[in-house]
Amino acid sequence: MTVGPRRSAPVAPAVVPALPLPAAGWSRSTDVVVVGSGAAGLMTALALAGAGRRVAVVTKGALGDGSTRWAQGGLAAVLGADDDAALHLQDTLAAGAGLCDPDAVAALVAEAPDTVRLLQDLGARLDLDPRGRPALTREGGHSRNRIVHAGGDASGAEVTRTLVQALGDAGVEVHEHTLALDALRSDDGAVVGLRVARVAADGALTDAGDLRAHAVVLATGGYGQAYAAATSPAGATGDGLALALRAGAEVADVELVQFHPTVLWQGPGAAGQQVLISEAVRGEGAVLVDGAGRRLMPRAHPLADLAPRDVVSATIAAHLAATGEECVFLDATGLGADFLEHRFPGIVRSCRNAGFDMTTAPVPVTPGAHYTCGGVLADLDGRTGVPGLHAVGEVACTGVHGANRLASNSITEGLVAARRCAALLDAGLPPGAPPEPAAGGPFAAGAVDPSARPAIGAATSRHAGVLRTAAGLTELIGTLAGAPRLPADRSLDLAAVEATAVHTVATLLATAALARPESRGCHRRADAPATRPEWQVRLAHRLGGAGRVHTRAVPLGVPGTDRTQGVA
Fold first, then answer.
1. What total of structural domains would you count in the chain?
2. Pick the catalytic residue: 144, 246, 309, 524?
3. pTM of this prediction?
4. Catalytic: 309?
């Protein structure tokens, strides 16, 4: 298959697994089902409920679980007297390395300040300056102080608290510890609901049923846990992306995984969710140094330690490869212990719990998988190419982030997209009951055995990390192709669903990273270090027969290649 300009070597179509769905024991209907309860999902549900729509929220953990509550930095918005929308737009496009959708970025920048004010109206306790206005700080890639924060370094937790509390007063139907398995589709291919199941304490799936709706909004977050170690929580396994792919949607930019430069290094065998040290620490003046105390970044980029994340991560990775060292160090001691204790209490506490005190000495750091720029191909209103299916937040690829997310644009984007999606749905939902789903599901078998998870994570970390090569990616594709499937006598459970999702996103990631023979943004090929203008394209994937993945190149800004044009 030809996916882009002048590909030198063909890539055999990858095959992704399916799920053996449990039979539905019940069915009920609502207007909209929202899957996920991070910032994007909570805001979507809250806005729809405020418009008088019936909403059901499905979340596989407790309400408010997910990546949002772990966010330290804050929300990017133009609020300072020395700032303006054109600068925020310019900074975002520069970080995105040629793959941003300028119209989507312009909409985000324009609506961000009102979104911050809405959070305050809902009761968010933002950190304020002496004049009573939101205090602003700076992070990598930003030319002005425009990061709004809360609790010093607990911004995501405060956003989550605010939205969960508001949702509790809105009369929304909430299904906690409930897993969205697959989309229900009508005879014409539209999504008309979800097959869901309760997750028991041991991970078994019980009480499966159908939630029918006029629209399904995916807000399930990213897929950081496709790696052996990441900053994302354990539930960030790409479930929503895999579900959307099986429902007929296109997904794009899956190879564009942002690695945060400063993840606390806790040894070569560290796995699972890692301790993140916010970019805001460098925004306040901390610097990266090597083992001898020499600064790393001044010669790598004009913004030095506040260069975009892809530049900082790549610089660190190159230094480690050249020296054989296992980590570099973040030196924040010059900021003073009192300042650090007040401004970053959670980070200081987490470092101490791991045996490091950043108030008295530099702490060891390395890049770690952090944010996934790719996802379900959608516009900023959440529309995908499948009628009835919408996507907002990290699960969506809206073109805002391009090839590398600008720091603290993520929660802002999730909230802006959520409000736009809710407004779109409120204006367009038809009256009456949702359509009947077609008989049977589109898939019957093929889930990945959970025993494959460690090997998948290790291979993805080894071959699809900060620096990649064709040889390594080819090896990763082979590892994924050989992953064992769930035995026929074993019932589907949470572990198998998550293993299947991780396998799906890792397969798409490896396929796209191998097909893109250049370095751009957070995709870095050690064997193709240059950025090639003919590859200023988006790689989009859809499912064909027998679970085969078909990939196409979508030129940016070319008529007829709209982000939501649907599946051919």
1. 2
2. 309
3. 0.91
4. yes
